[in-house]
């Protein structure tokens, strides 16, 4: 059975990203369930969370069958581009009227990829290396990467146009969301969409960790500029919660790294529980 001390630092950051993103997604949705903007943000971040989790499970799996299952499951990332485009279209336009036919047509590429998720056309095989899990992608992955790049840059372009047209507080809100999305998108697309198509998957585990950039910028915009109409007191609550979670994960991770590399000792599960309590 895998214990926490066997998880490398990058996976710890991925775990932090997953926990933080799920918390942020539900927090925003529950703050205003009737808001289309909040719903779109929830769907986008939840899709991102599912992708982070599948990559995390791929990296910590010690069985080839399990690693292959989760590696193929990481194609759940197909939902990120369409939900991102949805979010950048309705934000910050609070009076946006949904068109089911329009969004159904835009979702066709996403629907197309769904049957390929559990197949070898998606991921053919996985191998355990000293640096982590190597993923050998299938032929459909190239088309998936093209779809990801086109839709994500389309979404960023839509948000950039909104930024150019806006002013005042709205412009500040869009600014921080845009900075987080651009940075995270470029890094994640490079490590998890572009490089794997040319046989370089050793940086794939870094992709999910970049979502912390988006989460950080979004949280800052929520706290400082009332992003998504979240009240100041509530915004500070979410910021402090995410901060405590971040500090705890990095503290535990640093302790594990120091123990295993410098002191050449193994950190037990009981010690990890103790470190968590002390944090």
- The number of E-state strands comes to 2
Classify the secondary structure makeup into a structural class. Answer: mainly alpha
Total helices: the number is: 12
- Taking pLDDT < 50 over at least 5 consecutive residues as the criterion, the unreliable ranges are 1-5, 266-279
**What string, H for helix and E for strand, traces the elements in order?**
HHHHHHEEHHHHHH
Strand composition percent: under 5%
Rg from Cα: 19 Å
Percent of residues in helical segments? 55-70%
- Which descriptor suits the 3D outline? globular
Report how far apart the termini are.
Answer: 25 Å
Largest sheet strand order: 1-2
Mean pLDDT over the residues: 78
What about the largest sheet? 2 strands, antiparallel
Q: What are the salient characteristics of this protein?
A:
disordered N terminus, disordered C terminus, two-stranded antiparallel sheet, 5% strand, globular, mainly alpha, 279 residues
């Amino acid at each position: 059975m895998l214990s926490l001390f066997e998880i490398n630092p990058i996976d710890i950051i991925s775990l932090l990203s997953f926990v933080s993103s799920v918390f942020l997604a539900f927090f925003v949705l529950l703050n205003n369930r009737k808001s289309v903007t909040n719903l779109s943000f929830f769907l986008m971040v939840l899709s991102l969370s599912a992708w982070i989790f599948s990559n995390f499970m791929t990296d910590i799996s010690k069985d080839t069958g399990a690693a292959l299952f989760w590696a193929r499951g990481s194609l759940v990332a197909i939902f990120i581009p369409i939900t991102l485009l949805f979010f950048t279209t309705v934000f910050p336009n609070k009076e946006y009227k949904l068109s089911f036919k329009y969004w159904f047509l835009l979702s066709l590429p996403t629907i197309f990829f769904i049957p390929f998720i559990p197949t070898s056309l998606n991921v053919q095989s996985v191998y355990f290396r000293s640096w982590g899990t190597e993923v050998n992608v299938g032929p459909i992955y190239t088309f998936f990467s093209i779809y990801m790049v086109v839709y994500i840059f389309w979404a960023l372009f839509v948000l950039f146009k909104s930024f150019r047209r806006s002013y005042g507080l709205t412009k500040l809100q869009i600014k921080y969301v845009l900075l987080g999305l651009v940075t995270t998108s470029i890094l994640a697309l490079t490590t998890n969409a572009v490089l794997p198509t040319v046989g370089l998957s050793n940086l794939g585990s870094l992709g999910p960790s970049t979502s912390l950039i988006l989460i950080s910028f979004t949280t800052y915009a929520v706290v400082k500029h009332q992003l998504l109409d979240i009240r100041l007191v509530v915004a500070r609550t979410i910021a402090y919660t995410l901060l405590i979670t971040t500090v705890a994960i990095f503290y535990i991770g640093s302790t594990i790294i120091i123990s295993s590399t410098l002191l050449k000792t193994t950190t037990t599960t009981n010690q990890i529980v103790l470190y968590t309590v002390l944090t």
